[in-house]
Amino acid sequence: AVTRQKDFYAAQVILADAFVELGQFAEARTWYERAIADSRFKDYCAHKLQELDAAGSEARRQQ
Known about the structure:
By secondary structure, the chain is mainly alpha-helical. The chain has 3 helices and no strands. The chain has one domain (9-62). The chain has helices at 9-22, 25-35, 42-62. The termini are far apart.
């Protein structure tokens, strides 16, 4: 769906959430950053990006 309709933000959020569950955080970040353009998903995506940042910071501290 996302390849056919570039502004299908709901699908982008679903993809991002799926990538988080798979542990592919860089890919998830890409999809959240695309979906944040839609005002309906702006707050949700911003929150998820903050969570990814926090998880990345925690992982770097543990190394």
